[in-house]
Amino acid sequence: MEYNSQREHLIIPEYGRNIQKLIEYTVSIEDDDKRNKSARVIINMMSQMNPGVKDSLDYQRKLWDHMYIISQFRLVVDSPFPPPSQDELDKKPGMIPYSEGKIKYRHYGKNIENIIDKAVDYEDGDEKEALTLTIANHLKKSYLNWNRDSVADETIIKQLTKMSDGKLEVPEGTKLSATSEILARNKPRKKKFTQKGKDHSGRRRGYSQKSY
């Protein structure tokens, strides 16, 4: 009996050992026409392992690249795509740079700061005032997601003024959404179980769920 630990290492395990053996055999074929024909048969077999995307051009290129890799770049065939570079495959990806932008209030996130920057560019008028009020209410809702006690409208308005560098102002005396309403909307909905009924013998048939 031959154990897997005694067999040759699988270069791309998702294709299995038989595909790897066929590719190894194709590498050894001396006749160019037969070798090209064998390679195309193997590509078709590899595509059957994931038929949902076999018509994609990128997927076809991926299959040819994988066949070259499995052959350890020894396969010489007339491919519709240039063979991948081994040096490029061995190259380690570069580090992803971290964002250097500082968030003034982390519990609001970066997206709301981007929205505020867009709102600042609006021309003065009713549309800008309505957008500013909407942003202020969103800030209050976000604040209460983290601190479920309470928050004064003045605190939210002051933070909005700071985040916009004083360019967005909420009219004096404006009332934001009530804290109680926001907390009620943020509260997770509970599931209430109601009895469906009983059968002819008096036994319960089960329960149904109802959110409220």
List the helices and strands and how they pair.
Layout: H1 16-28, H2 32-47, H3 57-70, H4 86-90, H5 109-120, H6 126-146, H7 153-163, H8 179-186, E1 191-195, E2 207-211
Antiparallel strand pairs: 1-2
Task: Describe the model.
- 47% of the residues lie in helices and 5% in strands.
- With 212 residues, the chain is mostly helical.
- The chain has two domains: 4-90, no CATH class; 109-185, no CATH class.
- It has a two-stranded antiparallel sheet.
- The longest helix has 21 residues, at 126-146.
- The two termini are 63 Å apart.
Number of structurally distinct domains: 2
Number of strands: 2
Order of strands, main sheet, comes to: 1-2
- The portion of residues forming beta strands comes to under 5%
What class, by secondary structure content?
Answer: mainly alpha
Tell me about the largest β-sheet: 2 strands, antiparallel
**Estimated helix fraction:** 40-55%
Global morphology: elongated
Average pLDDT, all residues? 83
- Based on CA atoms alone, the radius of gyration comes out at 32 Å
Order of helices and strands: HHHHHHHHEE
Low-confidence regions:
none
End-to-end distance: 63 Å
Helix count equals: 8
Give a brief description.
The protein has 8 helices and 2 strands. By secondary structure, it is mainly α.
Keywords:
mainly alpha, 2 domains, two-stranded antiparallel sheet, 2 strands
